[in-house]
Amino acid sequence: MLSVKYLTKNFDGLVAVKELSFDIREGEILAIIGPNGAGKSTVFNLMTGTLAPTSGKVFIHEENITGLKPYQIVKKGVARTFQTTSLFDQLRVIDNMLIAYKWRTRLGFWNTLFHTPAWKSQHDQAARNALETLDFLGLADKALAFIPTLSQEEQKRLAIGIALVCKPKLLLLDEPTGGLIQEETERIALFIKKVRDQGTTVCIIEHKMQMIMGMADRIVVLNYGQKIAEGTPDEIKTNQAVIEAYLGGDVHA
Amino acid sequence: MITKPLHTKLLYGFILLAALLLPLYVPDPYMFQVVIMSLIFAIAVLAMNLIIGFTGQASLAHAAFFGFGAYGVAIMTKAGISFWLALPAAASISALIGLIIGPPALRTRGSYFAIVTLAFGVIVWIVAGNWVQVTGGHNGIFGIPRPTPIPIPFIGAIEFFDQPAQYYLVLVFLLLTLFIMHRIVYSIFGLTFMAVRNNEPLADAVGINTFTTKLISFVIANFFAGLAGGLYAAIIGAVSPSVAAHLLTFNFLIFLILGGMASLAGPVVGAFAIPILMELLQDLGHFRMLFFGVLLVATIIYFPRGFVGAVRQLNDKIAARRQAKS
Q1: Which residues cross the membrane (chain B) (predicted)?
Q2: How far is the C-alpha of A195 from the C-alpha of A204, rounded, in Å?
Q3: Where are the domains of chain B?
Q4: Which of A88, A98, B6, B230 has the greatest number of C-beta atoms within 10 Å?
Q5: Domain containing A180: what range?
Q6: Bridge partners of B158?
Q7: Nearest-angstrom CA–CA distance, B238 and B217
Q8: How many domains is chain A built from?
Q9: pTM for this model (two decimals)
């Protein structure tokens, strides 16, 4: 459904991503892994318009979305989360959800000013959707809570929820379990599988090998901004280049 | 979305009643004038609150837009146009100018946006003082007609020559502004403003065009700044470059900070309390400024959300203590 074609990004001479190509297939969980500084997050930023690529293109369903702004790419059905948990932390949980649903509505200035029939129905629909998603997240009872009162895990979950509320076709997760303990990580992993089973394709950046091997359908491995391997978890486990990248170049098993 | 508790509703009801009956108990015409000015400033500060408090963009050109409204009404009504046409026209011109300078100004962020808008404000002030043919230069424009009487069949007409009539006129516009701000702030549309203030990259990532959102907020704020300016011109009957000066912007800003940012009550409280306090401390002469300086610094350090924020904090604490007891 989404194709990355020969994507390259230079930061003042430093090549962060080089000639990277891969596809995300409908309904799968694709993991992007690699050592620190391999360019994983940069790839996400290039895919979602946060950064403009030096060269190369990104397609969704054959449509070229390279160069679009982040808020435009969301409208193509690609939602993302950030590596550091990013929320509207001055607002309540429900407000976070409503904001993320806004682009699907026509709740602009005039409709809001005059409380038109369209405003009423769309407002109700947004609220219903937000509550449904909160229910799915297991945060329904926290709807009116302020963000700082939530636990780390709840915040991570909400960050995914914000991306999910507008019902994207593809969800990009940047280290959704960073900083969480084993038990919490497992719960988030189960949750991500649930998201996929509901029909959302998932692409995930993660460090925790055990978790990735258990959940991903396919894995893309990056090192120094280049793809060094792609395949199923079993293929990746035995891939020589991957072992070298992770254990250091000199090891020859 | 948020339903206010009963005692808050009662408080607001009481304040409204007190406002409606004010002409009956206001002590003297001078104080009455101070109150009328406060109402006008409250409209301007509410508008400033939208762009600074809710959207997080420190626009320091606010008095310039107040000035566009004031000069607009002054020039148009002196040319014989009805006040009721001139006022919305002047406010719209103010909004339109905001729409024109917004895009280049909003390309900058944070303090840079503050500096750009401040510079624009100063330019407007200088132009107002020197474009003699249009603005009357430093002398300004005198003899601006009072708001055109509203004819009412069989009874006569509502005229705006005495203070009570002017007071109610301004009060109606303040309530209208409050009503519109309330609609904006307590809506998903308004939440997008707060989203931009709170976390711009995330707002962008969830499909909010942050640039357009800021621009809309800026234009709405400037419309109401212009409206307040237009009312000022017609009530006072004269305008001079000081109505567009950056000093006035900082007055608004002080009202906003002391009253309480990002709340609807804060700007009104600030615009009222400070001028009236100023009058009460008249005897202190210039030493008043010392008092206000200390008050401002203390507020920013200890109550960053102003008077209204402090009351809310207190309210929350009491509620928490009650909960702990039960």
Answers
A1: 9-26, 32-52, 59-77, 83-101, 113-132, 167-194, 215-240, 252-277, 289-307
A2: 12
A3: 30-244
A4: B230
A5: 2-86+167-247
A6: B150
A7: 29
A8: 1
A9: 0.92
